[in-house]
Amino acid sequence: MPATAYIEGIAIWSPQLPGWDDAQRIFRREMPVPQATLSRPTPSLLPPNERRRAPDTVAVSLEVASKACAQAGRDPASLPCIFASTNGDLATTDYMCETLAQTPNLLSPTKFHNSVHNAAAGYWAIATGCMAGYTALSANTHTFSTGLLAALVQVRTDETDVLYVAYDTEARGPLATMATSTGKLGCALVLSPSPSDNSLFAIHWQTLEENQPPILTVSGEFAPLVAGNAMAACLPMLEALSHRGGRITYPLGQQLGLELTLELAGITSGQSAA
């Protein structure tokens, strides 16, 4: 029997999709795809000096996390959160490997603390004063769906609102041949166990014991906008939401899948979400 959660906030950032409002209009063909004008976002949560020093992974993840919370009308300091990234900050990892191999005494302490996989979640907790628990995870090619499942399970079991943030940036150096990713992409959802006046969509979800082929009720024509990024799997879900609903099956591994039915909040499963 499917479980249900509710989406109260949605955010996306990439150079050609720099916000959920524009992304919806692009997905619905109400506006053309803009030229990329920003190399990275400038999250207002961070003071200017921290904003300049923060790596791309932090800039992208904090941008979408703060925008999703703002849309949901939620206090970021109150939300437990899950941060999912396939590769973490490979640019920083590449720098550290090269420096340790060539000039280890010149290793930057700032770069070092930015290299850990939970760096973005740590920046978020400090910037917002959030004392709620957070999880930082990776699951290779299934990172987006695994992180989403973790967030949905926490919503269901703890009966609490959860912030889910998924992001990846460009891989650098020799590691890029093994852990490929290009560009910058982040998305975030604020999920709730119960409907409210802030509810935008309902997610009916269940796991499948056999990994069925992905089922997407969206066009997929916008996939080239984020093609090559390790978090590109978020796009079918966001495109479906821009069209007011749809059904998606995400793989979680070789023998497990995650089935999602997305509907406007207040629509009973089986009715039209048009």
Overview of the molecule:
With 274 residues, this protein is an alpha+beta fold. It has one domain (3-264): Thiolase/Chalcone synthase (Peroxisomal Thiolase, Chain A, domain 1, 3-Layer(aba) Sandwich), CATH 3.40.47.10. Helices cover 31% and strands 21% of the residues. It has 8 helices and 8 strands, in the order βαααβαααβαβββαββ. The protein has helices at 20-27, 48-53, 56-72, 90-102, 109-114, 119-128, 143-158, 234-242; strands at 3-13, 81-84, 134-137, 162-168, 185-192, 201-208, 245-251, 257-264. It has an 8-stranded mixed sheet. Helix 1 (20-27) packs across helix 8 (234-242) and helix 3 crosses helix 6. The longest helix is centred in the first third of the chain and has 17 residues, at 56-72. Residues 268-274 have low confidence and may be disordered.
| Shape assignment | globular
Instruction: Note the gap between the termini.
Output: 24 Å
What proportion of the residues is helical, as a percent range?
25-40%
Number of domains: 1
Indicate the CATH class: Alpha Beta
The total count of strands amounts to 8
Across the major sheet, the strand order is 3-2-4-5-1-6-8-7
Listing every helix as H and every strand as E from the N terminus to the C terminus, the arrangement reads: EHHHEHHHEHEEEHEE
Within CATH, the superfamily carries the name Thiolase/Chalcone synthase
Q: Please tell me the overall pLDDT.
A: 89
